[in-house]
Amino acid sequence: MKPILAVDHITKRFGGLVAVNDVSFDLQEGEILGLIGPNGAGKTTLVSLISGTIAPSTGKVVFQGAPIAHLPAFRRSRLGIGRTFQLMKPFLGLNVLDNVAVGALFGTGGGRSQLHRARDEAAYWLEFVGLDHRAQQRADELGGPDRKRLELAKALAMNPRLLLLDEVMAGLHHGEIDEVVTVIQKLRSRGISVLLIEHVMKAIQSLSDRVLVLHHGNKIAEGPPQAVLSDPRVVDAYLGSRHK
Amino acid sequence: MKRAIAWLALSATVVMLPLVPWIAPPALIQFGTTTLLIATLAQAWNIIGGYTGYASFGNSVFYGIGGYGTAIAMVQFDLPFGVGILLGGALAVLFALLLGLPVLRLRGHYFAIATLALAEAMAGVVSNLDIAGRNIGLILPLRKDDVLFYELSLALLALATLIVYWISRSRFGFGLIAIREDEDAAAVMGVNTTLFKSLAFMLAGFLSALAGGVHAYWITFIDPVSAFDITLNVMMIIMAIFGGAGTVLGPLVGAVLLASISEVLATEISAMASLFFGLVIVVAVIFMPRGLADLARRFRSLGWRYFRENLRLHRL
After folding, report:
1. Hey, of B165, B189, B247, which one would you mutate to test binding to chain A, going by the most A CBs within 10 A of its CB?
2. Which residue has better confidence, A141 or B212?
């Protein structure tokens, strides 16, 4: 197997703070890699380094065999990297359908040129995430859970090869979480690789092929979900060492 | 049915507008020309300010460059008007490109402030250029044909509106709207934000320059103070927002309405006109901050509550 994404000794400093410290990992084609860690561990920063919204201080990012760390965000998305934002970023002035159509117009390979084709595709992805009944509403009329779905549909409409999901289940109740888990399973069956940041351990356990743990910007564990989640260092990071 | 009536009214207006000079008195033709030109400016501003979300206070500079480009070409090089206005347009595009590279990196208020000083700076520069007639200005060849200038202005407004209509339903326009709503999200979805912002700025600059060129030839005179007038920039922004920034017809309707109100006030109560005009603006901003287009869209479902809700949003 060859990795679709290879992150090689990447470091990001914000002034004196080292948000991500010398992290390396591979993500295989079609794999779902869980990324967990306490708040402030550097998970979102790592996603931003891969998607290109921030530049690394040092280190390499290789996507489908080509280095991409020097590319601006829009070029990386055209190569096939889609992401969602933990702090959701809907286009508030557009309706839900057109929000998603932006992804189809500009995504992988430069997207579609015709608006009606993009809207057709957007409608498909809205149905895929269960938001089709809201297609004509303005994005600012959606509540939290539906905004999460919208965020997911926008990224999917880009037709990505690699999807970076930053806490798409946060704030959802059990039934809604199960729906999103089903959506991600369907993505896996289509061969889309996923980097999944999540605090919902049930979802991490059921979806991830492997799990990677960040703590204070450092990678402290990597491996199969069961082994990683029972690793004493990981338990310490989440609960503190005094729990023993 | 209502849609059909609206379309009928719109088509009738489009057919009627070119015929106005043949039935209207000279004063009305002149008012019409002025209004059409400022409506073109409001529509051009709509591209960068309304659709892209970059509130430019520097568009009047493009207007001035267009005017000076035309004047210099005609006066100093004896070129025909058609060549002169295109030269002015090209200069404005070049200026928008060079200026845009640094200032389009600024967001929100910082962009507005950076463009705010431009008009003054350009007036200073042009005042010291021999080719532009220094601070005295240039006198263009006289062409006394108000009908021609009216039709030219109308054609310009039509061109600007067609371009905005295309933007509103094109991939390019969706990219601009995505930039306006959230630039980071637009970038990770594949929008080349730097390119799109620059193109929008150049397009707005080009259309503004054409308006400046027509105006200079019509008035047959151009000087630094009138060419780089910051109040003109304020006017086009107010008109675009009053009508509805980021909509196809909003800026056009806003410009025609406000220009008419201003004209009526000026003739009826000349001394207090600007005071009342200011009052109109203040009331409009308080009760319909998103412009006439938003009012037209939501008044039907909300009724008078629309105004009450806007009032409440201001926390007055």
Report:
1. B189
2. B212
How far apart, in Å, do the first and last CA atoms of chain B sit?
Answer: 40
Taking the C-alpha atoms of residue B61 and residue B39, their distance in angstroms, rounded to an integer, is 16
- With CA atoms as reference, the chain B residue closest to A108 would be B190
Range scoring the smallest mean pLDDT among A107-116, A234-243, B5-14, B281-290: A234-243
Q: Which of B171, B187, B191 sits opposite A113 (nearest CB)?
A: B171
Give the CATH superfamily of A1-71+195-244. P-loop containing nucleotide triphosphate hydrolases (3.40.50.300)
- Vertex A225 angle, CA A219 and A46, to 5°: 35
- B68: pLDDT strictly greater than 90: yes
Q: What is the pLDDT of residues B168-203, one digit of tens each?
A: 999 999 999 999 999 999 999 999 999 999 999 999
Q: Is residue B44 part of a domain?
A: yes
- The reply to whether B267 falls in a domain is no
Give the ipTM.
Answer: 0.91
Q: A93 and B169 in contact by Cβ < 8 A?
A: no
CA distances from B12 to B9, B17, B23, B157 (A): 5, 9, 16, 17
Percentage of chain A surpassing pLDDT 70?
98
Question: Scanning every residue of chain B, which has its alpha carbon at the shortest distance from the alpha carbon of A110?
Answer: B190
Q: B132 — contact with chain A (CB < 8 Å)?
A: no
Calpha distance B231→B121 (Å, rounded) = 15
- Number of separate domains in chain B: 1
